[in-house]
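To whoever is on call:

I kicked off a structure prediction for a single chain this morning and the downstream step that reads the tokens threw a length-mismatch warning. I double-checked the sequence; it's 91 residues and nothing unusual in it as far as I can see. Pasting both halves so you can look.
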Amino acid sequence: MLLTVILGAAAGWGAKHVEPQVTDRLYRWLGSEHMIAEQDRGVAALLVCLLAAAVLLSLLGEGGRVFLFSLFAALGYFQEDLREAFLRRGS
């Protein structure tokens, strides 16, 4: 279960860092005329990271609870925004 939490958070955190590479691949595969909207590129990067983490969990034989995995992936992805909102609320 701990591995699920760690990989979920890492997938969410890593999505923002791999977004340029995912966007570049999408441009190559789809071309500029079929490219997805800019706000959807972050979601595409998140999905790529989630799929990679899910494959890793599966290969390691970890059952992986989907809700827990998704929750920590979302927390990892939105951690900067959540921390900023929390700090603003405290001030």
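Update from on-call: the warning came from a stale cache, not from the record. Cleared it. Sanity check on the structure: The chain has a mean pLDDT of 81.
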